[in-house]
Amino acid sequence: MIFYKTLINIRKKHGFTQEEFAKTLGCTEEYIVAIESNKEQASFTFVVNLKDKLNLHSAPITESEREALMDSLQTFRILIDYGEMQKAAEQLPNLAKNVRVSYSPSANNFFDLFAAAYYWVANDKKAYEETMAALSKRTDEFSGKHQHYYHRLIAVRELKDYHYNEALKAYVTAEKLDRDAQLASVGFYYLYGRCLSDMGYVAKAIKYLMKAKHLAKWRKVYNGKPNRIHDASIDGFLANNLGIIGKSDDALEILDKRLAIEKKKKNKHGMGITYYYLGKMHLRAKNYSEALNNFDMAFHYCGESSHVYVNILYRKAQTFIKSGKITEGINCADEGLDISTRTIWTVLFDALKHSALLSDPKLMLYMERTAIPNLLEFGQHEEVLEYYELLRDFHSGKKQFELALKYSKFAYELQKQLYKELVEGELL
Q: Could you say which of 57, 86, 101 is where a domain stops?
């Protein structure tokens, strides 16, 4: 029958006290109190009278109607999480209409949270920001489940903007809220693992990427199909982190299997992502020719319009410079500087270019005072370690041993920090 919380919300929406509500509906105040406190079920006559008096004929106010609405909301969320954006778009208008007339704060909160996720995936930044602004004003209404999804959305935005510390705090909060409800999905674990990976928390990153991979493999969705949207990226990040801790054979096995799957599916983007991570593996192993071949294949399949284009360009520039092809590396870095729209990429390409030309005090001063502090702020510890070692070697070659020792100490301290994060997986 009627859901007691819905009755409370309908009454408050119309501005009635319990006494006024009872008079309007022709019943006693005690009856309203009993229903709203969930001590008594509303009669069929009461529900019909309620709809008639307040013109709520289309409102899903019964228990079964409310359950059906919540099921529809979860289906909408699953469509988004598994990349079925066209089907999600088809459901959006009718679902919005049903939710708005439901008088259910929970349904409205869930809808706006899932709609914000939809707008984010659909790249409608304006609608996303407007929805998030509205949600932020009513967080006091949220239950634990609402809070979980809200912090997930915050984490996604912060990660996109390379605010790693803020993203990590939001992911940790979301995970704590999820421990009882079990709401986390493939996308949640993948992005959580990606955030940890970018920050150098390799042990933790592997843990959550393995969770994402497990869900992607075994969880079935509304139409019985396995997840597709995150597969290549999950395997790529997982292989990259396994490579960092020396498990190169395991990493290459994962990437080879992924490439075969993406080729069979003729998924160009998935193939491009996999070639990119194969390139990173060969770069780490100093197989520069193989690395460049894989980065070229990644360019071919992903294209310049892809969101990973700038990543591929950076690694290709890095490969050229490390293999002694300084001119080609600088040309790649200059191209990256031309197309970079975010501060982090400007800093990365600029620092890479200066490291290739490290030959005079002005450039060294830039690396020490500008590039390295900025890279540390963005959490790019591996790149900073590399530049410390370059500065150490440069000063050593110039027989400036005091300066060489200074950068050697910086490198040692940073290496200790990275090792702690790598092996112990320390987190907050």
A: 57
Query: 394 with 364: CB under 8 angstroms?
Result: yes
Residue labelled with tokens 């079935």: 220
Count of the separate structural domains present in the chain: 2
Phi-psi region of 225 (alpha: psi -120 to 50; beta: other; left: phi over 0): beta
Provide the domain limits for residue 384: 358-428
SS3 178: helix
Higher model confidence: residue 299 or residue 97?
299
Tell me the pLDDT tens digit for each residue of 388-402. Answer: 888 888 888 888 889
Q: Does 14 fall in a domain?
A: yes
Phi, psi dihedral angles at 2 (to 5 degrees) = -65, 140
CATH value at residue 49: 1.10.260.40
For the segment 196-226, what is each residue's pLDDT rounded down to a tens digit?
888 878 888 999 999 888 877 765 444 445 4
Q: Which of 202, 37, 68, 185 is nearest to 117 (CA)?
A: 185
pTM: 0.78
Alpha helices (H) along 27-160? 29-36, 44-54, 63-81, 85-100, 105-121, 125-136, 144-160
Please name the residues in contact with 424: beta carbons below 8 A apart, sequence gap of 6 or more: 203
Q: Is residue 40 part of a domain?
A: yes
CA angle 326, 330, 332 (to 5 degrees): 120
Q: What is the pLDDT of residue 252?
A: 94
Asked whether residue 411 is domain-assigned, the answer is yes
Q: Domain ends where: 57, 74, 101?
A: 57
Check the CA dihedral 245-284-196-117 and report its sign. negative
Q: Which amino acid is at 205?
A: A
Query: Using CA atoms, how far apart are residues 260 and 306, in angstroms rounded to an integer?
Result: 21
Segment among 72-76, 286-290, 302-306, 346-350 with least mean pLDDT: 302-306
Contacts of 284 (CB under 8 A, 6+ apart): 243, 244
Q: Angle CA(107)–CA(149)–CA(191) in degrees, nearest 5?
A: 145
Give pLDDT tens digits for 91-101: 999 999 888 77
DSSP string, 10-56: HHHHTT--HHHHHHHHTS-HHHHHHHHTTSSPPPHHHHHHHHHHHT-
Query: Two tokens at 68?
Result: 């059906």
Residue 362 lies in a domain: yes
